[in-house]
Amino acid sequence: MSQIIRKAACVGGGVIGGGWIARFLLNGIDVAVFDPHPEAKRIVGEVLDNARRAYGKMIQAPLGDEGVLTFHDDLATAVADADYIQESVPEQLALKHRVLAQIEAAARPDALIGSSTSGFKPSELQEGATHPGRIFVAHPFNPVYLVPLVEVVGSPANAPATLDRAEAIQRETGMMPLRVRKEIDAHIGDRLLEAVWRESLWLVNDDVATTQEIDDVIRFSFGLRWAQMGLFETYRIAGGEAGMKHFIEQFGPALAWPWTKLMDVPEMTDELATKIGDQSDAQSGMHTIRELERIRDDNLIGIYQALKANDWGAGRTLREMEDRFFERAKDGAAEATPDYAAPLELHQCRVPGDWLDYNGHMTEFRYLQVFGDATDAFLGHIGMDAAYRAPGRSVYTVESHIRHLSETKAGTKLSVRTTVLGHDAKRIRLHHEMVDDEGNVQATGEHMLVHVDTSAGKASPMQAPLTDRLSALSPGQRGLVAPDHAGRPIRDIGWPVAEVE
Ligand SMILES: NC(=O)c1ccc[n+]([C@@H]2O[C@H](COP(=O)([O-])OP(=O)(O)OC[C@H]3O[C@@H](n4cnc5c(N)ncnc54)[C@H](O)[C@@H]3O)[C@@H](O)[C@H]2O)c1
């Protein structure tokens, strides 16, 4: 578990608070919640279900144990022993002042207090505070458990070290903190969004476009570009080989033309609100909000994965987040002191509902995922971490043989028993046995791994600490009896092999 933060408290568990709760919990951090809403547990539970589903699809690393979630009837007990407290109550300054005062009265003196406020400046939140220096803005984006950016805004009352500590905690949960240089109303993101929002309201108000048409213009054009290069880098390319300066000179004069009604705000009459509401119902009313959230999450995950493949933007944040999951799995595995004279139990997981296929059992490729995660846990155990991989050293799987022995159901707690069948300077041969919580073998996997120099693109000898740790565990593992199916190909049942024409 993280040393930077052990326990968080979330005050307010609505759309945003629920997202913070999910982000902390799924990153292994305990969370105490205070929200007086009578249905707070149900609402948070539904957000958590969606978040678990999203992490199961997004994170290609062992997910590890979640933190412990507790709900409290009073604010004071929820925040009492938290390292970090996130306030996400409705956007009313008087309410935020009242809640922040209650948090300050009950929190540990060294606890940090972030506010999700979309619009208030930190100096406004700090008015009347006993220790204003530990209150700051930590403004996230919905869904908080998936979107990485958090705008961290301080006032002159905040020591830089306080904000540094807040950012370290946020990074630990896979977020991308951005320190806003000056406090202004609505920070940076919402300033940009409000400009587009105002212009969109005008376009609907003036019957130029429907809500659907405006959304189509965004998602079929610049929305695609924004997710990967933002605004300035995109425009740099639009300037062609002559570059950004040329682009500004070419299009700059248009800024003075009356294209935009930006400084004007359409009056939000009942008529306009009804028009937008009706158009939005026609556009998306066939889906519930939870369905829309899942569609949104799946699309975000796809974008994330594409960006990760290019080690770019939010994809790099995801890769770093996965590295932390691997590190935590490795720490967990390293803390264990296994008996090397027995198979090693280094990886456990529970089968989530969306791992099932149309037969209602765990689908085929998830078996390989479980064995792959067990292999990673083993490699972590013998010392392969981000530092070892940094110079381009890694271990690739070059051959696998999986035997599917049972119908693995949703909710089953799986544990993998790993045996080292052998190793030499460059290769490790592993056998995994996947068992349920009653010890029934669900599947076995046998894998040949090769140590590689990734920049040279060829096999290379392992180095310390891998070599030392393998030598340490070998005597015990050598005493184990290899299963009789080890080394066997798919059983030959006497059929002729198809002839290639
Ligand atoms: N919705 C967004 O897209 C978004 C994005 C970023 C930031 N924010 C900011 O996050 C904050 C919360 O917004 P939201 O959209 O989650 O609102 P919300 O209405 O969904 O949730 C607010 C929650 O606070 C709870 N609450 C009310 N009084 C409370 C109290 N005294 N103590 C503890 N809990 C209390 C409510 O029961 C509710 O569950 C606001 O400051 C908002 O500006 C919102």
Verbal overview:
By secondary structure, the chain is an alpha/beta fold. The chain folds into three domains: 7-185, 3-Layer(aba) Sandwich (Rossmann fold); 190-286, Orthogonal Bundle (N-(1-d-carboxylethyl)-l-norvaline Dehydrogenase, domain 2); 337-478, Hotdog Thioesterase (Thiol Ester Dehydrase, Chain A, Roll). Helices cover 43% and strands 18% of the residues. It has helices spanning 15-26, 40-58, 75-79, 93-106, 122-126, 160-172, 189-205, 211-229, 232-238, 243-251, 270-284, 289-309, 314-335, 364-381, 386-389, 466-478, and strands at 7-11, 30-34, 69-71, 84-87, 112-115, 135-139, 149-153, 176-180, 344-350, 393-404, 413-423, 427-435, 441-453, 458-459. The strands form two sheets. An eight-stranded mixed beta sheet has the order 3-2-1-4-5-6-7-8, sandwiched between helices. Strands 9, 10, 11, 12, 13 and 14 form a six-stranded antiparallel beta sheet that branches. It is globular and about 80 Å long. The protein binds nicotinamide-adenine-dinucleotide. Residues 11-17, 34-37, 88-91, 99, 116-118, 139-140, 142 line the site of nicotinamide-adenine-dinucleotide (NAD).
Which features characterize this protein?
single chain, 501 residues, alpha/beta, Rossmann fold, N-(1-d-carboxylethyl)-l-norvaline Dehydrogenase, domain 2, Thiol Ester Dehydrase, Chain A, 3 domains, eight-stranded mixed β-sheet, six-stranded antiparallel β-sheet, 16 helices, 14 strands, 43% helix, globular, binds nicotinamide-adenine-dinucleotide
